Every structure is written in structure tokens, then in C-alpha cells.
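Quick one, C-alpha cells below. Sequence please?
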């Protein structure tokens, strides 16, 4: 994967939130993969550099990124049928058995 520089504002736009579910915690414990909700226009290299940018104080290095586009489900609202939005999620593998501390995010450090 190529390395590109992503600014701190763009990094926060790319990585929306970690996915917290039973399957996500199982993958985090067994396979050391973390699942994130990401922006629709983000690609693998942007996601990798955004994660390394956000958690650079913890010296996080990303080994690989897999992306899945999830289609929105059709839901019924009374007589009408609507559809939830499509979204994208990323499975991120970390190097060297590292773990991300989600409470320690320092993007804008005083210089």
C-alpha cells in the first residue's frame, strides 16, 4: 500500500466511529482486527494513514485494511417502504499485537 499524508481534520472525517458489537469484540480478541465505520469516499490508503494519524501518540502501525460496502436495508414505515442509507466499514489489522486505546486521542497537540 502506498503511504499518503492525511490531515488531522480529514482523518476525523474518514474514521467515523468504531463498531461495537459481539462480532467486533470477538474479532478484536481472536484475530486482532478492529472494525470502523468509515466515510463513503475513503480508500484503503487513506484509512490506514488516518488511523495512524489519530492514534500516533500510541505508535499504532496498520498492517492491512479490508473494506466492505454495506447496503442499506429496506424498512417499512406504515404504508410506505423506505431504505436506510448505505455505509462502509473497514476491518483494520494492527502490527505487533498492539491495541488501540479509544480514550486517548491527541490530534491537536500544543507545539
Amino acid at each position: 500500500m502506498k503511504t499518503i499524508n492525511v490531515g488531522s481534520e480529514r482523518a476525523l472525517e474518514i474514521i467515523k466511529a468504531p463498531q461495537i458489537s459481539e462480532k467486533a469484540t470477538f474479532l478484536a480478541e481472536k484475530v486482532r482486527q478492529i472494525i470502523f465505520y468509515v466515510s463513503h469516499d475513503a480508500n484503503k490508503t487513506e484509512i490506514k494513514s488516518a488511523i495512524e494519524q489519530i492514534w500516533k501518540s500510541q505508535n499504532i502501525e496498520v498492517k492491512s485494511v479490508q473494506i466492505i460496502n454495506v447496503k442499506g436495508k429496506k424498512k417499512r414505515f406504515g404504508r410506505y417502504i423506505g431504505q436506510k442509507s448505505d455505509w462502509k466499514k473497514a476491518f483494520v489489522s494492527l502490527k505487533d499485537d498492539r491495541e488501540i486505546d479509544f480514550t486517548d486521542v491527541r490530534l491537536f497537540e500544543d507545539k
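The chain has three helices and six strands. The CA atoms of residues 63 and 94 lie 5 Å apart.
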